[in-house]
Amino acid sequence: MPTLIHVTNPTGGSTEYEENQLHTLWQSGKIQTDALYWRDGMTDWRPLSELFNPYSYTPAPPPLPSPETTAVFTSTQTTGYSYTKDPQKLTSFLILMQRILLAAEIIVLFSDLAELSLLNRAYTEEEGEANDTRQGLIGIAYLIITIIAGITFLKWVYRANLNSRGFGAQSMRFTPGWCIGYYFIPFLNLVRPYQSMKEIWQVSQNPARWQTQESSSLLSIWWGLSIVTGILGQIVFRTSMSANDIPSLKNSTTISCFSSVVEIILIIVTLKVIASIAQNQENLVKGQ
Question: Is the predicted pLDDT of residue 71 greater than 60, yes or no?
Fold first, then answer.
């Protein structure tokens, strides 16, 4: 993971940034030109202008506000929140993919129920082959949709954390990179993704005092369902691989139906989590 750079801010504290993120903020003039920085290996704080000297930014003074716009100007300066990278298109695409995934999961559920119905009666060889073909095609389509939706979700989490840091939140524990990385580390992936999402949720409510913000039971439900679906997915895979007769196939398909029901609930909750965080961050930017 990239080394973090600590940068002083007007409040007397410091904020952690990844270098690419800091470079973008510096170029856009959102970092004070007299700010100091420190990174691992340095013995003392140094002017940030030394680090980005080739990219120095000297903004032209803006025109003075007219009396009619003074109130609006003052309000904008009071909030001062802006996106490091606008997430709106990504959020819209993620919500679309989650809805497509929800539809696919419902189709999987009905296809499994159809297979159970077939297994509970005498059927011809042609019916069996048609069932296997249908299940196979649906499985391939579902896998492709799941991969696209999963990658989009991880990219959205990365950006939500990036913007949370850009709001000036102090002492955030998780970096954008580790918010993604923890999903792939055994054992840690049982806890860290939830904790990083909770941090994003809190910052999105109040960046200045995020550590005092309440979390939401919605996050606990989301993560609990995520763990349950992961366990059920493993069970479905193992039972389907070992199914070699009608009773074992019935058992595997029944578990798959139950897994689909839980997955449908999880997707609905995930949509609510995404919408809530996105709305809170948008409210910060709009000063609401």
Answer: no
Biggest CA-to-CA distance, the chain: 84
Q: Which fold has domain 4-61?
A: Dna Ligase; domain 1 (3.30.1490)
Range from 28-37, 45-54, 266-275 carrying the lowest mean pLDDT: 45-54
pLDDT of residue 64: 62
**Partners of 7 in the beta sheet?**
15, 37
**All structural domains of the chain with their residue ranges:** 4-61, 88-286
